Amino acid sequence: MKKLLVFFAALAMALSGMIATAGEGYVLNMYHFNLQYVAGSDKAMRAGVEKGLEPLLDVYLAHPAWKADFELQAEFITYLAANYPKVLDKFRQLSKSGQAEVVSFHYSDQLILGFPALDQNRSLKLTREIFQQYDIPLSGVIFTQEAQFGQGVCALGKEWGYQIAVMTPGPYNWFQDDPGLPYFSCRGIVVLKAENPDIAPEQIKTEDVNGVKVKWYFLGDGELVVTGGVSPYFGALFRINQARVKKVESDFTKLQAEGYQIATVSEYVSALQKKGTAPRPLKPALDAPWRPEDDQGVFTWMGKYVMPREDDYGIRTQNWQTRSWLIAAEEAGIDWSSLRSAWMNQLDAEVSDSTGWFPLPVELRYSPEKSQLVLEEVKKLCPNCRPEKMKLDLEPIAEKDFPVSAKVVGAQKADEKFFRVTGREGLFAVEAGFTAGKDSKLAFPFTGNEIVYSPAMLEDQVVRIPLDLIKHPLHYVGLANGLIALDQNLWLIRDNQAGMVACGIDPDQKEIHFRVKGASGRGIFFRVYILKGSERDALDFANQLNQTKGR
């Protein structure tokens, strides 16, 4: 009788799994681990490894049939090698067995949407070198810090051999209005739309495409998985929650019993492709992070001061000024092996967490300290190297002779100077210095019927997106080469070394602006050029001015 009951129980479980999946079923997890969760804090880095990463690795080591995507910056690998070689051994074991699909698209957790392909190419070069050095297989999947996404991510990813980019619901829903397949194409790679799931398995949304089902169980900061949602910001409260670990194990076991594989992103995409499911083209999207609805894009890291101690403008402008020394050294012939350490420090200085969400004092110090190391290294390697700026002769003119309106709004006091660039027909400049108020901006009229700009990491071209294809009117982009159109053959080019915050695109107010909010009393300066001319002329000038090409 007992044997009979066991038989029927097993049969019922098998049948329930067949009924539940009616084909293939995949459970996906994207664990994003951030060595710079509290940038510059050694205590937080150690806690993230000991109480976040290693316990989760142990869960997977104990269950060889379970797989997942582990995303982390390449610098994390070097940190493990130097400080936790046994943890690195566990990670290597999981990656080489195929249990851990390792995802990495940057050396440091950079604000990649604020910088050009030149910087990201150096970052990806370091990533490849480090993964090869420590014998960690690197997957063809892209997922980034703050889930930053844009057409340039797709284009540069394709160049470096990546095949799949994971896009979070935030930027997807911000621009797309077609639920369709969770599976799109963008500049030669596949884009997979992820879901932000609830932990309760019965509440996890199931997608079914041609008999291939998928459930997203976890998408987000991997440090939170075994701690029950507590982050390294909370010190002593950040510790292993055994009840949460048991819940994950129980949930996965139940999902397996229903016929689902605890799998990887690549396995799911491969299953779609084997079914002959073709991805649809992704609709137009501007550069955006994981929750554009919070601040309409990258404004959180490039202009929004949540607390008075923040310095978005100062840190991001310094990033651009410091990188010019590295470019000068490269142009002087200093080789990669000599400049490798300086580029590591530069990419650390470009980290997102120094300027958002709520940067701590240690994070505010982190980027300037890294920038100082870059300067020291370059000056030691190349004592005669100096950044070269375009030689432009600015002739003062009256405001009425400037081709467009340029107004500082909301400042405590402001001073605007207008120029014609001598010897360059159709090229003008404005220098605007002001003491910020609670919410201040330098604004220009935007009278075009489409958004025309160069996405980050795609500075060699412009994209044109009709305004009626954009769902939300106000949006902020990094503007890595400084270029955006105000109207047909009328271009704005910001000098990024002379002032760097996000570029606000506001069709409802018919303006393009550079804004700082919550920076009362801070000194702000911008130099912006206006060019009347062709797209080619505008691109060439913008990329030369902002040194996006390099050697």
Give structural notes.
The chain is α/β, with parallel strands linked by helices. Helices cover 35% and strands 23% of the residues. The chain has helices at 2-21, 42-61, 74-83, 85-97, 117-133, 151-159, 169-175, 242-257, 265-274, 292-295, 312-331, 336-349, 361-381, 535-545, and strands at residues 24-33, 68-72, 100-103, 141-142, 164-167, 183-186, 189-193, 206-209, 212-221, 261-263, 280-281, 394-397, 407-409, 413-421, 427-435, 439-445, 450-453, 463-466, 475-477, 483-487, 490-494, 503-506, 511-517, 523-532. The strands form five sheets. Strands 1, 2, 3, 8, 9 and 10 form a six-stranded mixed β-sheet that branches. α2 (42-61) links the parallel β1 and β2 (68-72). α5 crosses α12, α11 packs antiparallel against α12 and α11 packs parallel to α13. The radius of gyration is 25 Å and the shape is globular. The N and C termini lie far apart (78 Å). Residues 1-21 have low confidence and may be disordered.
Overall number of domains: 3
Q: Please provide the count of β strands.
A: 24
Helix-and-strand structural type: alpha/beta
The biggest sheet amounts to: 6 strands, mixed
Number of helices: 14
Quick overview of this protein structure:
The protein is α/β, with parallel strands linked by helices and 551 residues long. The protein has 14 helices and 24 strands.
